[in-house]
Design brief:
- The complex is a heterodimer of chains A (189) and B (930).
- Chain A is mostly helical and 189 residues long.
- Chain A is built from eight helices and one strand; from the N terminus they run H-H-H-H-H-E-H-H-H.
- Chain A is 43% helix and 2% strand.
- In chain A, helix 4 packs across helix 5.
- Chain A is elongated and about 100 Å long.
- Chain A starts with 6 loop residues before the first helix and ends in a 16-residue tail after the last helix.
- Chain B has 30 helices and 39 strands.
- Chain B is globular and about 85 Å long.
- With 930 residues, chain B is of the alpha/beta class.
- The chains are: A mainly alpha (189), B alpha/beta (930).
- Chains A and B meet through helix 4, helix 5, strand 1 and helix 6 of A and strand 1 and helix 28 of B.
- Strand 1 of chain A pairs antiparallel with strand 1 of chain B, so a sheet runs across the interface.
């Protein structure tokens, strides 16, 4: 009776098995990499906004402090999107007729809100407080990047939980925050 | 699935039988649908938008909640509240510390006001003959009616309101009646008449309002009066009662008050009484007479009764500190006796205050509805305007009010819902909820509280004041109608709006003396046969809360029943009639018969049944329609509270009643402890060693102490927790399967003639049994000692719940939060809404801890004692709950935990709970000490 498989087949089968395992592992790893990639977290994406506001001009060239417009960043959970009134404080004088301002002018006159697209969007079950981070010395650019160099604001960091924890772990071990900073309950309720 | 399998499942898991009966086709269908939908999550959500205000609001930080002071009403009496509004949506109600009916706390009804405000079933349009109409059309119709009735001097115009204390509405209606002298104002209180006023008229010659100061009372006798039970006075009375029993920190209280309760239906008052006696209502009237004889107020047969002798002696010793209260449904003669006894003991001016009327309007409310019904039958009414009342449902059955409504040519109903009355009226107009109204209301002591809108009224909703003004031909905005009747300048107005109360408007006490001609009536003859008591329901009250799912699912304090009412009776009476819990019985009273399930309550008077009102509504909304039976139909206008000679018989049918606590006793265990008035030193205890690691706490370690000596079982904490923590409603079927979701429940036990309450919530054990069994580390200890639940890690093994000796963990068997019909706007944005398949439980209001911690850190200081107040603690009328840092020996909670009465529940399990209890103190009469 002739052999169905020649000795070489063993090697072939072994190689196929090893290759299949490698490919499978590769797919899994690639998937894991993909969900952790900047692209999955929309890093670098600058959505279109109703008004082409230039952070690089205002915060960069003109050197206006972040807190001039984001008024509640030091004491509230929410940093605050400036009201049209704040914009018009300057723009009643400069660039007053520009057509790109139409939504802002309308908002200041009628009180109707300007609807912006959110760039930094945290999941609903994470409770982030701007005030406490700013007061503990976390700079705006730590999370938001060099907004003063962005023509249109894009997400600079993933804002994933792992990324938050990188910082919280450091502060828990070397900073003054203590072990509490890596409790679940510090961000989740 | 084969049939033997089915039978086995039925036998083993009766509750699951329906769920498991799924055929192969259905399974394949669901699988196919799941596959088809599986691709959807890949699409991802649309980018979120953020709307920037056009103009800033001075003093307001965007995103931060706003707080408004306003008032809510119950039976016309106002309670001052502080309403939190997130982005324009009212989300939580707290008590207003400046308001005498609140003092910072509220009852369960007030807490649930948030859900009534957000009720999607609330009326959204004016209707003519059931068809929606534009608001302008309604305004024109109203103006036309105003012209018609003005031309006739008001002839044929009748206005029917619910009980109201609003000075502005009373003023507007008085103006209207002044201009239209032939018009008349009727008032209908479903829970009326209040015989206390008639009793005062009998004895003092003036129908005065009576209020009690329980703080100064040392001996309290209640005659079927549930002073600690639900009602407009509950918060103030519960607080006063608890103050009279609270031990000072230094040691035992020497002058603790003593409560004697004579009851027909078991209630909170009887549960907290030091001595309780169950009697049928007719016997209570006779009992009151014999008490009055002993105290020299009445003449007649004293009889021999050791309890009466003890009570009389105690009352005499107490003198000005004595207080006798009769229940609202007892006859006016019994109230007259109670008033006279209080007067004779010198209690008027200390524990009893008589004032002028708090409620506005025509006095004899029920007679007023009877007169109206008679006039309607006689054809004397051409225009009937019903403001905030639902007489088609709440009128006594023998008036036939619903039929009479059809005989009136023009009927207009203003109400929160298009309810039973709206369906029978030609016009219906949507009423503004208190949280979107300008208005005012008097508290039980007469203090005026202002109402201001927390949100703008939508859908053309208007206030009763606006309709009254339009009827008078002078339509005006709601705010102006209240402002123009407010006495004071703009600064005073703004201050009153800010505070929620108008200063110095409490009604003064009046000096009273029994009229010279008054003689106590002889005791009534005993009623024959089965007696019937009509009583408001502790969950839905007179039916006005029937469409509120939080209140429908609120376990009633003693029966722990939800989503139903039942004919309540004593176990012995039920046994004699061959009835058991859940058996449907037919109750015949006169010519009318009602069918409903029976429920036995230990401590209920024999040969008496209690019929809770407020259920059996046929047009309440999605939640409240067709729940329970309607007891109003058996009521008679001439005897609305009590009836005798009823007949109760079994029908052989059964009705499944859902309850949250099926056991009644502690089974010999040491769960609720009671202590004599002078407590002993506790045995010094070192906790036994534990195999689990110790935690070190650098900062605060949170803990709670619950004083069972203060708790009156009022359920305010349960509702407050539900509102604060987005606890979903699960419905009757789920509760019947034991799947209720309340994070905080109140256990009640019937032991040795005593009824005991125990609020139960997560104990936040130091050695938590739940933590060690979780395979995915979803429940963990945090650095401040909280036992936290990580929803995103939870895979739903439910091991934690099985290993929890306190049974305080709740599992989301379905997507309750999505499916419960509670609108998203009602949710607290500071608390995660849980999804299907995860465990949840009390967090010690972690969101409030986080808010306080961040505020303290921003101000660079430690968290002060008392800065973190949990929702249950804040709402508690009697101050039973104290929360704080147990690491700080001087904190209020640490001081309370040092009391010799402090004990850990199931302490022998060495779970070292952070929530501990203080034993209840009983203060039995001398010679009866246990």
């Amino acid at each position: 009776m002739t052999q169905v498989f020649r000795p070489r087949s063993t090697l072939l089968f072994r190689s196929v098995f090893v290759l299949a395992a490698l490919v499978l592992a590769g797919v899994v790893l690639a998937g894991m990499a993909a969900v952790r990639s900047d692209r999955a977290w929309n890093v670098g994406e600058a959505p279109e906004q109703p008004v082409p506001f230039r952070h690089d001009l205002h915060a960069g060239t003109l050197g206006i402090d972040c807190r001039y417009c984001h008024t509640s960043v030091e004491h509230a959970a929410y940093a605050g999107i400036p009201t049209a009134e704040i914009c018009m404080g300057c723009h009643r004088e400069v660039w007053r007729g520009a057509s790109v301002f139409a939504p802002v002018r309308g908002s200041a006159d009628t009180g109707e809100p300007v609807v912006w697209t959110r760039v930094h969007d945290l999941p609903a079950h994470a409770y982030f407080h701007h005030g406490i981070h700013v007061s503990k010395g976390v700079a705006c650019e730590t999370c938001h990047g060099r907004v003063d160099r962005m023509a249109a604001v894009a997400k600079a960091e993933t804002l994933s939980m792992g990324w938050c924890l990188d910082c919280h772990r450091k502060a828990a071990t070397t900073g003054t925050g203590g072990a509490r900073l890596i409790d679940c309950s510090v961000c989740h309720r | 699935m084969t049939e033997p399998d089915d039978r086995r499942i039925d036998a083993e898991f009766p509750a699951l039988a329906d769920l498991l009966r799924t055929d192969r086709r259905a399974v394949l269908k669901v699988m196919a649908a799941s596959m088809a939908l599986a691709g959807l999550p890949g699409c991802g959500p649309a980018p979120e938008t953020v709307a920037a205000r056009g103009r800033g609001v001075p003093g307001h930080t965007p995103g931060a909640p706003l707080v408004f002071a306003t008032s809510l009403t119950l039976d016309g009496y106002g309670t001052g509240v502080l309403v939190r509004s997130d982005e324009g949506h009212p989300t939580k109600i707290e008590g207003n510390p400046l308001h005498p009916a609140s003092l910072g706390a509220t009852d369960a009804f007030t807490q649930a006001g948030i859900l009534t405000f957000h009720d999607p079933d609330r009326s959204r349009a004016a209707r003519l003959d059931g068809q929606p109409q534009p608001a302008q059309r309604f305004e024109r119709a109203l103006a036309q009616v105003a012209d018609e009735v003005t031309a006739r001097g008001g002839e044929g115009l009748r206005i029917l309101t619910g009980p109201t204390s609003s000075p502005s509405l009373a003023g507007l209606l008085a103006d209207l009646l002044g201009r239209l002298p032939n018009a008349r104002w009727h008032q209908h209180a479903p829970l009326g008449p209040d015989n206390r006023r008639e009793g005062a008229r009998l004895v003092f010659g003036d129908a005065l309002e009576t209020r009690h100061d329980l703080v100064r009372a040392s001996v309290i006798v209640t005659l079927d009066a549930d002073i600690l039970g639900p009602g407009p006075h509950q918060v103030a009375y519960a607080r006063g009662f608890a103050a009279g029993r609270r031990e000072p920190e230094a040691g035992p209280k020497t002058n603790m008050n003593r409560l004697y309760a004579i009851e027909s239906t078991p209630g909170a008052t009887g549960a907290r009484a030091d001595r309780r006696l169950a009697l049928p209502p007719s016997a209570i009237a006779a009992f009151a007479h014999r008490l009055a004889v002993r105290l020299g107020v009445a003449e007649g047969e004293a009889g021999s009764d050791p309890l009466l002798d003890t009570m009389a002696a105690d009352l005499r010793v107490a003198g000005p500190g004595a207080l006798v209260v009769a229940g609202r449904h007892l006859p006016a003669e019994t109230h007259a006796l109670a008033h006279a006894v209080n007067h004779a003991l010198g209690a008027v001016g200390t524990t009893v205050h008589h004032t002028g009327p708090v409620l506005a309007g025509p006095w004899d409310e029920s007679a007023s509805l009877e007169v109206l019904a008679a006039d309607m039958a006689a054809g004397a009414v051409s225009h009937l305007v019903i403001l905030d009342s639902n007489p088609a449902y709440t009128a006594p059955g023998d008036l036939g009010f619903a039929d009479l409504l059809a005989t009136v040519p023009f009927t207009l109903h203003l109400g929160l819902w298009a309810d039973e009355t709206a369906a029978l009226c030609r016009w219906h107009a949507p009423m503004a909820h208190a949280l979107e109204s300008w208005g005012d209301a008097r508290a039980w002591d007469g203090t005026v509280g202002l109402m201001q809108p927390v949100a703008a009224p939508r859908h053309g909703r208007r206030t009763p004041q606006e309709v009254a003004a339009a009827l008078a031909g002078r339509p005006a905005a709601a705010r102006e109608l209240v402002r123009e009747r407010f006495q004071g300048d703009d600064a005073a107005w703004r201050q009153a709006l800010h505070d929620g109360v108008v200063p110095d408007t409490a009604l003064p006490s009046r000096a009273v003396a029994p009229a010279p001609g008054w003689r106590p009536a002889p005791p009534p003859a005993g009623a024959g046969g089965l007696e019937v008591v009509f009583a408001p329901d502790p969950s839905v009250w007179d039916g006005c809360f029937a469409n509120n799912a939080w209140l429908q699912e609120l376990p009633k304090p003693l029966s722990k029943m939800v989503w139903d009412n039942a004919i309540l009776l004593a176990p012995a009476t039920a046994a004699a009639l061959d009835l058991e819990n859940g058996a449907v019985a037919a109750l015949t009273l006169g010519s009318r018969t009602l069918r409903g399930p029976v429920w036995t309550l230990p401590g209920h008077a024999a040969d008496t049944v209690t019929l809770p009102l407020g259920y059996g509504r046929w047009s309440a909304g999605r939640v409240g329609t067709a729940v329970g039976f309607d007891a109003y139909r058996l009521r008679r206008a001439d005897a609305p509270w009590l009836a005798a000679g009823a007949e109760l018989r079994a029908t052989g049918e059964r009705h499944a009643l859902a309850t949250t606590q099926r056991h009644a006793t502690m089974a010999g265990r040491d769960i609720v402890r009671t202590a004599p008035p002078v407590p002993r030193e506790p045995p010094a205890q070192e906790p036994p060693p534990s195999i689990y690691p110790d935690y070190a706490y650098a900062g605060p370690a949170w803990g709670m102490a619950v004083d069972l000596n203060a708790c009156v079982g009022c359920n305010a904490c349960v509702t407050a927790c539900q509102a604060e923590n987005n606890v979903p409603v699960v419905g009757r079927a789920e509760v019947a399967r034991g799947r209720e979701m309340h994070w905080l429940r109140i256990d009640r036990y019937f032991e040795d003639q005593q009824t005991l309450f125990q609020p139960m919530l997560c104990m936040h054990c130091e050695k938590a049994p739940c933590e060690v069994v979780c395979p995915v580390n979803a429940t963990v200890h945090d650095a401040e000692g909280l036992n936290v639940m990580v929803y995103n890690r939870c895979v739903g093994t439910r091991y934690c719940s099985n290993n929890c000796p306190y049974k305080v963990r709740r599992f989301n068997w379905f997507d309750y939060a999505q499916d419960d019909g509670v609108p998203a706007e009602a949710a607290n944005p500071e608390v995660t809404v849980r999804v299907r398949g995860v465990m949840e439980k009390c967090t010690y209001c972690i969101q409030r801890i986080a808010t306080a911690r961040i505020r303290a850190k921003l101000e660079n200081r430690p968290i002060a004692d008392g800065e973190v107040v949990t929702a249950c603690q804040q709402v508690c009328p009697s101050g039973a709950i104290v929360f704080g840092d147990v690491n700080d020996p001087d904190s209020a909670v640490s001081r309370r935990k040092r009391s010799p009465r402090n004990y850990a529940l199931l302490g022998e399990l060495n779970t070292r709970p952070r929530t501990t209890y203080l034993a209840r103190i009983d203060n039995p009469p001398a010679g009866e000490e246990a």
